[in-house]
Amino acid sequence: MNKKNIASLTTPSFLVNLSTLENNINKYQKLADENSVELFPMLKTHKSSEITKMQIDKGAKGVLVGTLDEAEKVIKKSGVKKVMLAYPVIGDTNLDRVINLSKECDLFVAFDNEIPAIELSKKLNNTKINYQIIINSGLNRFGVSPEDSVLLYNTLKKYPNLVFKGISTHTGQVYGFSKDYINKITEKEISTMTLAKKLLIENGADVEFVATGTTPTFESAIKSSEITISRPGNYVFFDAIQVALGAATEDDCALSVLATVVSHPSEDLFILDCGSKCLGLDQGAHGNSLTKGFGIIKNHPELTIIGLSEEVAKVKKEGSTTLKIGDKIEIIPNHSCSAANMTNYLIGHRSGVIEKIIEVDIRGNSRKICID
Ligand SMILES: Cc1ncc(COP(=O)(O)O)c(C=O)c1O
Q1: pLDDT tens digits for 48-59?
Q2: Sheet hosting strand 229-230, strand order edge to edge
Q3: 3-state SS class at 178
């Protein structure tokens, strides 16, 4: 049977260029291997057990999850053995979920204050759980300073069922700057973690791992002998934000949204059948707005997406264009992690020939809530 081409798809559709996806996974894995760093990809970008399996098959040692939903599903569906939680968890039900997870995999919870730790410890009784301390290396979101990591470590020593394993950080502030700052932020990432590790060791801690990771700082950070685990997420797809930042090229971007021109209301304006419910409204992260419009329209530099309603996009042309009503175009979203979360299915193709459907099967609302 002849395989279909993406041009035959209804729109909007979410496309994944499989060759680009594989290249991205291979490239980051190879760099991690060459630098003897363990790769724990963050799953929030694709939320897909199939893409997780591709990452594990290539050599990823574990995964980083942003939600308990991701963790619960990925363990069952992809056979992942080591799971790190990116953020602290609190609350009765969620702590029970954490304990259940710890029975199914090698789990590493994350703390930056003692309250979730004490709550978890009370529930654990005689069983033990591994934890990491989150260090703030400039994002000013989660995390303690290197000095305060020692205080937290000492406090948590009182709870023998909590087993300290290492430290982690995420220099997401890199997205708030331009390319010229990537190296500066990497230096901050490494120096902060080096100091935290030193202070903890001086205080008697056994620091088994030092984990960092953002896609833009990945390549330079893993060269440091201090970093033992890297946890990038966005690199599987990249996106228009990474292109604007200079951390990727358009050719590196694996995810796109296929849309059709449905109206041409005036000489310089076109309307597409995909809106914020496909592309998301992100124009940058952590204060950055380097992107032009709401995504890159492939092969049409003369076009800018100037506005999004929920289901439609407004496109302005500058100069001449061949675009007409009925044409299908591909858009690289500004933020691929947000865009991929808008669909249940990604359509995997190679040079436009459809090869398979990839389910976005480990995203939110994986648990039916009991209301009785
Ligand atoms: C704690 C943590 N680690 C790693 C990542 C992955 O970062 P990136 O998508 O830039 O690779 C994120 C992203 O949100 C994160 O919050």
Answers
A1: 999 999 999 999
A2: 38-39, 229-230, 209-212, 162-168, 129-134, 106-111, 82-85, 63-65
A3: coil
Pairing of strands 209-212, 229-230: parallel
Six token digits for residue 184? 């500066």
Q: Which tokens go with 182?
A: 């990537």
Q: What is the CATH number of domain 18-238?
A: 3.20.20.10
What does the longest C-alpha to C-alpha distance in the chain come to? Answer: 72
Distance CA 104, CA 55 (A): 20
Find the 234 Cα to ligand 1 centroid distance in Å: 7
Task: Render pLDDT for 225-273 as a digit per residue (tens, 0 to 9).
Answer: 999 999 999 999 999 999 999 999 999 999 999 999 999 999 999 999 9
Q: Write the residue with the smallest CA distance to atom 15 of ligand 1.
A: 170
Closest ligand 1 atom to residue 175 Cα is 10
pTM here? Answer: 0.96
Share of the chain above pLDDT 90, in %: 91
Work out the pLDDT band at 284, boundaries 50, 70, 90.
confident
Residue 177 · residue 142 · CB < 8 Å:
no
Chain mean pLDDT for the chain: 95
Taking the domain 6-11+242-359, which CATH number applies?
2.40.37.20
> In a 3-state reduction of DSSP, which class is residue 91?
coil
Beta strands in the chain (DSSP E): 13-17, 38-39, 63-65, 82-85, 106-111, 129-134, 162-168, 209-212, 229-230, 255-266, 269-272, 296-297, 303-308, 313-317, 328-332, 345-350, 353-359
* Ligand 1 atom 2 nearest Cα: 170
Alpha carbon of 267 to ligand 1 centroid (Å): 42
Domain boundaries, the chain: 6-11+242-359, 18-238
Is residue 198 predicted with pLDDT exceeding 90?
Answer: yes
pLDDT value at residue 259? 98
CA distance 331 to 91: 40
Pocket of ligand 1, beta carbon within 6 A: 42, 45, 64, 86, 170, 172, 213-215, 231-235
1 falls in which pLDDT band (50, 70, 90)?
low
